[in-house]
């Protein structure tokens, strides 16, 4: 089947899914289809690669994946519209990256009593600028990208120094242990599978972590690289400073990451652009979470509440994952400060409702 015919068939199927509320369906018009359906990126990616998952899964929220970094430019009429809608911004004018001065942060432990925050995590996604995203990658690409990533990770020193564990050849025991610790990723997401995210699984994929398991890197999961800094308790400063140190060390070790002016750092899914930074705490808030104003309270502070096992999951014992909602249109230090203020407000509100006490 030729490219134009396949694009037309997918578009027809998308229009027939009248119950779909995806951003892809909302913004892929006949005119945009006609302009983009026969174009190819410099990595060989096509519009078909970008929309296939959203067509096969009409209940998708976004429904659009970038086939490679160049997709954000080649298919800009579609991507820009979806990005503005998802991120609730009128202009795509993301500022220059700024993590702030780690020596001058005005926050430390958000829960010194240790009664409410179970753990803290900050993560960012990064993409190699010389490789495409899953739909266009070959098996050889994945192996080469893994090699370049591991070479850089093995240069890390001090508390960041660690070990890389490739998925290929990993024993069942190691795999189970890492899954139980919520460190390891798997191939169970049907949206990613439809987008080509699990092609050649598990080749070229693995996990790196330091000795204390407070710094992790996922290699070739959804994104090329995902850096994660985490620890028990509420010391956001320690977690954030560790992540900043790792990002800067890896950038200076020869890795070059994909960016676009106005969009910041580029990743596979347009929902995660700009800073790509997600800072979160697992926090015990049984009183506030039971309140009818919980959602409105979170919206007021630009924070998002999820179950502790991720989006669309339920809370366990009043413990929620609270994170910053905005990633595009602000700097990294602004994003972390927004999350910090939100968590502080959540703690204050929980205490005012009679919560925040030891079990």
From TrEMBL:
This is Arginine kinase. Signal peptide: none annotated. InterPro entries: ATP-guanido_PTrfase (IPR000749), ATP-guanido_PTrfase_AS (IPR022415), ATP-guanido_PTrfase_cat (IPR022414), ATP-guanido_PTrfase_N (IPR022413), ATP-guanido_PTrfase_N_sf (IPR036802), Gln_synth/guanido_kin_cat_dom (IPR014746). Keywords: ATP-binding, Kinase, Nucleotide-binding, Transferase. Residues 6-88 form the Phosphagen kinase N-terminal domain. GO terms for cellular component: extracellular space. It comes from Candidula unifasciata. Gene3D superfamilies: ATP:guanido phosphotransferase, N-terminal domain (1.10.135.10), Glutamine synthetase/guanido kinase, catalytic domain (3.30.590.10). Residues 116-353 form the Phosphagen kinase C-terminal domain. ATP binds at residues 119-123, 182, 226, 278-282, 306-311. Belongs to the ATP:guanido phosphotransferase family. One of its GO terms (molecular function) is creatine kinase activity. The lineage of its organism: Eukaryota, Metazoa, Spiralia, Lophotrochozoa, Mollusca. GO terms for biological process: phosphocreatine biosynthetic process.
């Amino acid at each position: 089947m030729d490219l134009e015919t396949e694009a037309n068939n997918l578009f027809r199927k998308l229009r027939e899914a009248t119950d779909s509320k995806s951003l892809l369906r909302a913004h892929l018009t006949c005119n945009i289809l006609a302009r983009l359906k026969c174009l190819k990126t410099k990595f060989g990616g096509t519009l078909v690669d970008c929309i296939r998952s959203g067509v096969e899964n009409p209940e998708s929220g976004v429904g659009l994946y970038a086939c490679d970094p160049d997709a954000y430019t080649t298919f800009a009429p579609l991507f820009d519209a979806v990005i503005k809608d998802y991120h609730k911004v009128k202009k795509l004018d993301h500022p220059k990256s700024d993590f702030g001065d780690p020596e001058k942060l005005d926050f430390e432990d958000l829960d010194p009593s240790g009664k409410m925050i179970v753990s803290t995590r900050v993560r960012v996604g990064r993409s190699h600028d010389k490789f495409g995203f899953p739909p266009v990658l070959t098996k050889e690409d994945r192996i080469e990208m893994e090699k370049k990533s591991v070479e850089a990770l093995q240069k890390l020193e001090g508390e960041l120094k660690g070990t890389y564990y490739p998925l290929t050849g990993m024993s069942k025991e190691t795999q189970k242990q890492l899954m139980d610790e919520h460190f390891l990723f798997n191939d169970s997401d049907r949206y990613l599978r439809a987008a080509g995210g699990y092609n050649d699984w598990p080749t070229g994929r693995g996990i790196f972590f330091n000795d204390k398991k407070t710094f992790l890197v996922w290699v070739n999961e959804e994104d090329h690289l995902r850096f994660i800094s985490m620890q028990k308790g509420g010391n956001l400063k320690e977690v954030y400073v560790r992540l900043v140190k790792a990002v800067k060390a890896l950038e200076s070790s020869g890795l070059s990451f994909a960016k676009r002016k106005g969009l910041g750092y580029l990743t596979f899914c347009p929902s995660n652009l700009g800073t790509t930074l997600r800072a979160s705490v697992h926090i015990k808030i049984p009183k506030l979470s039971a309140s009818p104003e919980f959602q409105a309270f979170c919206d007021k502070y630009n924070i998002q509440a999820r179950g502790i096992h991720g989006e669309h999951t339920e809370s366990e014992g009043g413990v929620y994952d609270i994170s910053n909602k905005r990633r595009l249109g602000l700097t990294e230090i602004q994003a972390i400060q927004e999350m910090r203020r939100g968590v502080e407000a959540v703690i204050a509100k929980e205490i005012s409702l009679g919560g925040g006490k030891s079990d």
